[in-house]
Structures are given as C-alpha cells and as structure tokens.
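2024-03-11 09:14:02 DEBUG pipeline.ingest accepted 1 chain
2024-03-11 09:14:02 DEBUG pipeline.ingest length=529
2024-03-11 09:14:03 DEBUG pipeline.predict start
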Amino acid sequence: MLDLSPPKLLNKTSLPFRNARDCKAWLVGLPMTDVPHAHTIMVEAIDSLNLTELPGYERLKILELTRDKVAFLQESLVGTFASKPLPLPHLTLIAWQNAAALWEGMERGYRTCLRAAANEDAETAKYFALIAERCLSYTGLQIRNYSFVYKEAPARLTQNLHSLFHFAEKRGVAHVPVKDSIDGHRGVASPAQTYIRALLLNAAEPSMLHANQLAAVDDLLKKWAGKVVISRIPPENEAAALRCTDLIGDKGLCIPCGPPVQTETLIYLDLKSLSNSLRRRIRKLAKGVPWSELSLPPSFAHVAVSQLLAHIHRQWCEALVDETSEPPARGECDVVNGFEAFYQALTGHPFEAPRQTEDFSSLAADQMAVFGKVIQRSAAVLSNNAAPLGETWKLESAPSSVVQFRRPLASKIAVSLQQMIGYRQAGESGLKLAIVRGMRDQQDAGLLVDTVPLTRHFEAVILRVKDMAFSPGLRLRSSPAATVELLLAPGFFQPGRVMEVRADDIQMYRLTGVSQRGPNFDWVTCQPL
C-alpha cells in the first residue's frame, strides 16, 4: 500500500528560496567546481524543501529545476565509492551515505507532489504521469546506490517501487510517456519503463558487476525497457524468458514456479523480445562484428561486451541453475591475500629475495650456452618482513563451481571483484586459489563472498625483471610445452619483456600476453627462451 500520509510541513524554514524563479537564481550560485561542498549544500536545500509548506505545483517546478544539478553532483560523487574494496573506509562510507540521502530526498519531494496531485490539486494533477515516473526513478536510483557498494537494498525500497507502479496503474498513467531529458530514451520515459528498468537492473545480479558494468546495463535498459511487455495474463512464450513479481510483496523478479497463474497483484514480464536482441548481438560479436556497430550505448566501450551481454541474458532470460544447491560444506578456512602470503602458505616460509650481483641476462646466456639451461647457485638471502599467514573465514558452501565464504567483520583483508585469494580448509595442506566473482554486504552478518576456484595446479616461484627487485609469483602447471603461464602482481607485464623465474632451477621467459587481470594479479602467458 502506497504511503501518502501528509508530512509535517513548516511555514518558515532555512530554505534559501520560496519559488521556482528564486530557485533558478540560487542554482546559478552553486560552487559546482567544488563537488563535495556543492553536494552538501544541495542535500541541505532538498531536506529543507521537504520540510517547507509550498503549493504543490511550485514544489514540482523547483524539483524539476534541481534535477540536472543533482544528476551532475551524484555522478561526480559516485566514483569515490562505487565498486571500491570492502569494507569502505570511513570517509568513503560517508560519501556513499550523502549520495543515498540526496536520492532519498528527491524521492520524498516528488512523493509530496504525488500526494498533492492525488488530493485533487488541479494544477499539480495535470502532471500525474510525470510525478509518478520521477518517484519510480528516484526509488530505483536508491536501490542502484546500494548495488554500487554491494549492499542489499532494504526491502522497503522494493516494496515502494511496486506500490508506486501499482498506484500509477490504478490512476491510468503507467504507460503515459513523459519528458525525461536525464534518464529517458531520446528524452522520453513512462512510469512502466522506469519501473521495468529498476526491476531488471536489480535482477542483473549487481553483486557480480563493477560500477562501469552496472552503468552500461542501466544505459542499455534506458533504450530497451520498451521491449518488455507487462501483463497479468501469463504469456505463452518459453518459460525461461518469463519473470514475475508480486505488487504487494517486497521481492524483485523471480522465475515462476510451476504453471503461471493469474492473480490481481501478480504481474509477468515477457522478456522474449529482449532475449532475441541480446542473443543476436552475442552471435554477431562471436563472428567478429565490432560492438560499436551493434547499436549499444557508448558506456559499453569500458566493459567486456560479449561477457556482459551473456551475463545479463543468463540472469534475465534463462532458467537459472542454483549453484549452491549442493549440501553446504560448512566449516572454517585460512584465507590469505597477496603473492607474499601465497608464497609463504605454499612453501612454509616467508618470501626471501636472493642476493644477486650478476647481471641476470648475461649470466643466463652463458649458462644456456654451456648447460642448455640456467643453473641456480646457492646464495645468501636478504629476508623481507614475513607476510601474515592470513585470517579465519567461515566456509558457507563449496559446490564444484562456486566456493562461498563469509568474511568476518573484524577481517583486515579488503575484498574486490575479480580479486584472487588463497584458502586452505582445516586439516588440509597446500593452498587453493579462487577468484572473487560476487559480494554481498550483509551488514552485521559480515560480507558474503562468492568465488570461482582455480582448478589448475601451481607452484611458488621467485620472479625478476632486469633492474627490478625479486618478487614472489606462481607458475601454472600442465601448460602446453611451448607456452608457460604465470600469475604475477600487477605492473610487471609488458609484451616482449624477459623475466627470470626461479624454482628448482632458473628459467628465462619472454612475456607474450595477458589472459586475465584482477585488482591484485595478472595472469600472463610466456615462452621459454
């Protein structure tokens, strides 16, 4: 049920303007070159506006005037917290909270306008569809703001989203197009399209997406939300491309369980047309067609296009397999992060840099000429500070394809998407590696971390590039004879660079390519010399 109860409004507040004309002049004076300062001023002004008694139409005009500045300030601020390693530092968390406050303030302002329109304010009621679209838009932006930091949005926001759409339906404005120069496709959007966009963005499993991927999906939905048909009568298309939701519930989209049924509050989204558009582009990309020729938004220039399109098609248009349906392997694991910690966990001693006085390239050339390989000499060592062995995390589940951990609140390891971590279950020896594919911050319950385990065998090695210090790394086994794969810390890779690799002996390799990159590793290919 949509809450349209009247707020407590005051005749006198600290609001720096009382009408649209004065607001326009006030906006000109905002210090937009100082984003944090301007953002604080805007949050305070919107909060004051929401406490001030004003005619409904005047309030609406003021909110419409602020939208461009609000959008600019929020976009400028989002880079300070979006997709940053968790947990967020204190100042970064404050920036996120300030962004959340401004989105919430805008939604509250438009909801006050909606209340005026619903109460027969004739002038405001002319813009019923526009106000409903704005309320849905700012509710969706609040949900997206949680996704940027991998937090689960409060159920009340999804409930508000459903209630607003249901209200727009009852008033007959759900499919009325309105001007939206900021978030509309070609400057136009409808309440239904904005609602669909928010639902599908949240259904794209944002816990597995970086901020630039989330932004690309959002831009795509601005164009393609109109391809989705909302109906209370279950379509007869293939079930995999069908999603549903309950307008009186607090959940997002789900796949219908069993034969679809028809009820007053259950709605269906027919995603068949959307599925066809995605599959057509995935096929063209596989044939080598550039993404720029596929009518995708410019934001796709910053993502792996084929991978992202396949991901959202899987989330929206396929019958999903529950990867954690196997009996959970609960317990505890030692978790380590970083190559010095990987090295110590594998070898049983801290990483130590060999003392090397010879020029490695000339020495290696001489030994290759005589022995056919480079021989490692005994040498004194210079000990670095021993890397910590890691922390104890809870193992939530461990099917073959996904290993899920719960990172404790006291953990010192910051976690990012695509980060490589090492782990060892109680009673085991050696070390396993996994790459983080998703995160969900569950507040007091800790951070839930989904990882994809690395099935290849690997060994600890010592690496050196000429004129650089020795570093720990990993060498993958079972590679083709002509190709060697290494896991290195970021910053070492350059095509053609020669690298010395020490294990039982010394080998020289020429780096040739990068297979995968994460925030704390490069997975590179190389050829033996």
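2024-03-11 09:14:41 DEBUG pipeline.report The chain has a mean pLDDT of 88.
2024-03-11 09:14:41 DEBUG pipeline.predict end
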